[in-house]
Amino acid sequence: MGISLVIDVLLALGLVGLALQVVAGPSLFRSIVLFVVFGLVMALAWARLHAPDLAMAEAAIGAGITGALLLMTYRRLVELNPEKRGETYLGSRWLAAPVGVLTGVLVGLIGWAALQLPPGDTTAGTLARDALDETGVSNPVTGVLLVFRGYDTLLEMGVLLLAFLGARAVASGRAHSPGTSEVSEPALVGALLSLVVPLTILVGIYLLRAGGHAPGGAFQAGAVLAAGGVLLSLTGRLVPTDHTPLVQRLVLVLGLLVFSGMGLFMLFAGSAMLSLPGTWAIYLVETALMISIALPLALLFAQAPGLKGRGH
Amino acid sequence: MAEQAMILLVFLPLLAACLAFVLAGTPARVIAGITMAALPALMLPITVDVIDQGEIAHSLGGHAAPLGIRLVADGSGALMLWLVAIIGSLASLHAWFSFRDQPDAEGTFWPLWLILIAGLNGMFLSCDLFNLYVAMELVTLSAVALVALAGGPVALSAAMRYLLLAMLASLAYLLGVVLIYNATGTMDFRLLAADLEATPEVIISLVLITVGLLLKTAIFPLHVWLPRAHASAPGPVSAVLSALVVKASLFVLYRIWFWSGAELDLAPAEWVLGLAGAGAIIYGSLAALVQSRLKLLVAYSTVAQLGYLMMIFPLASLLAWPAANYQIMAHALAKAALFLAAANILRGQGTDRLQELGGLDRRQPIDLFAFGIAGVSIMGLPPSGGFLAKWMFLETAWAQAAWGWLAVMVIGSLLAAAYIFRALAGMLTSRQTEFQARIRPVHRAMSLSALALALLALASGFASSPILELLGLEPPGLSVDS
């Protein structure tokens, strides 16, 4: 009890301290790095709160992918405006104090209200736990995401596709200069990649499979796969293309097509929309989701409409 | 049959977006065209059943609420779905021709457009607060991307501001939903009604949800993102943003206020919302009056007309409900027509500066005509739909002796007449300016889609009885204190 309380207090203080450093830090680069650290400490906090699925999502997406995107953006900013390197790009600060006070009051109120809440007897959450047996998966998070509230997950796939399309809309008319300059790379990079990239695929597929009964699932697995793609494009193994190739366009919408196609099939076969015919269907949908999650994340990172292998 | 049609309203555009993205080019345009034309056909069986049975519902995955998510189409929802179908198809017709000469943008446009339509239909059908959040994200993100598609620094910075404020709004909404779920154990906004009590956490969550939705709806003083975003977007996008997207979040607010909160006494807050609406009417109208660009004038007019929709809160009664729904419909049709006509004028003249639009009656008569007809409904002149909506609002205020609100609405209508006539006067003067370099041809179909919407806005003033029949049952929150 004593030790765990100390850990919790340290985590809470660390989170607040890191958040303050991220927002009020003197340099943009430092803020980005600390934001990644914040995400990792947040993942620890989720783990302490017995929410391992959230912890993994936070580490993979909140810290990993978001941090990578922020760093890419920073590099681009420095490229565009070299003399401003390291300077904070945050705007006027006279609003900072009132906004900070307001946010503090709001957080205080919400925290206070949350403490008032009695633990509910029959919530949607307890109902989901009770009905988990009929789903064929024993991880309640996967049960909720795929079976009870699959519609939300399906629409979230639309949001991911939108993120890609939105980036395309903003970038249209602006030619992106892919880093074509051949940089000599350290000799160990190739060896390291040949070790790490197969591992990301292995871990991704493991997470997907494990999602049925333990923390994991399509989102975490997709993020890990995307990390493999990020590594390959960082080291120049994957290079941007001008247009999205047909296969990659298909992969981007695969999750949506498979999930809603199966749902519509069940609907017109006389069952309810998005009801799944068995555990195999859950894994099929999750596999499609994983692939359709990984590709847009990797493409967003590469700031490219598509990717191809070097030398093609 | 109706249930399947209801589900297809979301999934048909969603799948069409995927196909349009994969196939690209001309097939994408054809897929989008067929999909949009199918929407009114899908609405027919839904409408028949809604009038017949009051509402239709489907539990997704076969899991009943609160465990699963329900889709529900009721009277007011069906009216909104009709608006999406009609305005969406006519705006698509416009986009078919206006995006044809921009192959780069068009490849991204149709998937974004179809996802926006799917998201809107999803919002009007959803009965679940969290699902509404996801559908709202679909709508917001596609709307932001479509604004950015116009290209250029003005559109990009408008899109960025829209994105940041909309994300802030989503966050506030989501925080509120989390608190409400913790207090009641459900997110189905009808089941909620039984469990909501005026405890501190419920009040905090309602405040968060309301502020979030008001920011998304761009109600004064939270409107700052709207004028630039709506004015700099491509024509059909502006039309759908002003006609439907801002109404969707307001529709959610109505749902939460009058269905979920039916048992709560919200009177003090209703006053605050009414004041915001009055501010919107006065400020938006005055701002529209001083604009020098046509599209900005139309955008500020949206800020003003949205204010009327807040009048339902202080005037909450059985009469205010059809008035608000009528205002949503009439404004949606008229504003879509105004934006399409303004886009045609901008395209045909190379500028939308009011000073340089003289002699438009000879150069673009159909667009000018459409603008004028739609203007009649915005001003609230008989026999338009806008007249009927404002008349019902005034009648409500009169019956409750609410002279303050009545005065604001009358002043708003006079100011609306002023800004519409100011625009028309500029276009009808004979002063001819030299032709600009950036003029592009306006296809006849683009003008006709604007005209069709304007005529529909006018016609909705005549066709009140089927529309009021469709509206059907009033929300429970309004039927108690009439």
Helix and strand layout, with pairings?
The complex is a heterodimer of chains A (312) and B (482).
Chain A: H1 2-24, H2 28-48, H3 52-80, H4 96-116, H5 124-130, H6 140-148, H7 150-171, H8 188-210, H9 218-234, E1 238-241, H10 246-268, H11 279-302, E2 306-309
Antiparallel strand pairs in A: 1-2
Helix pairs in contact in A: 1-2, 2-3, 3-9, 3-11, 6-7, 7-10, 7-11, 8-9, 9-11, 10-11
Chain B: H1 2-23, H2 25-53, E1 55-59, E2 70-74, H3 75-98, H4 103-125, H5 129-148, H6 152-184, H7 192-195, H8 200-217, H9 226-232, H10 235-260, H11 267-289, H12 294-310, H13 320-349, H14 360-363, H15 365-379, H16 385-399, H17 403-428, H18 444-459, H19 464-471, H20 476-479
Antiparallel strand pairs in B: 1-2
Helix pairs in contact in B: 1-2, 1-4, 2-3, 2-4, 3-4, 3-10, 3-13, 3-18, 3-19, 4-5, 4-10, 5-6, 5-10, 6-8, 6-9, 8-10, 9-10, 9-12, 10-13, 11-12, 11-17, 12-13, 12-17, 13-15, 13-16, 13-18, 15-17, 15-18, 16-17
Can you tell me about this structure?
The complex is a heterodimer of chains A (312) and B (482). Chain A has two domains: 81 residues; 160 residues, no CATH class. Chain A has a two-stranded antiparallel ribbon with strand order 1-2. In chain A, 70% of the residues lie in helices and 3% in strands. Chain A has 312 residues and is mostly helical. The model of chain A has no long low-confidence stretch (mean pLDDT 85). Chain A is globular and about 65 Å long. The N and C termini of chain A lie far apart (59 Å). With 482 residues, chain B is an all-alpha fold. Chain B has a domain of 215 residues. The longest helix of chain B has 33 residues. The model of chain B has no long low-confidence stretch (mean pLDDT 91). The chains are: A mainly alpha (312), B mainly alpha (482).
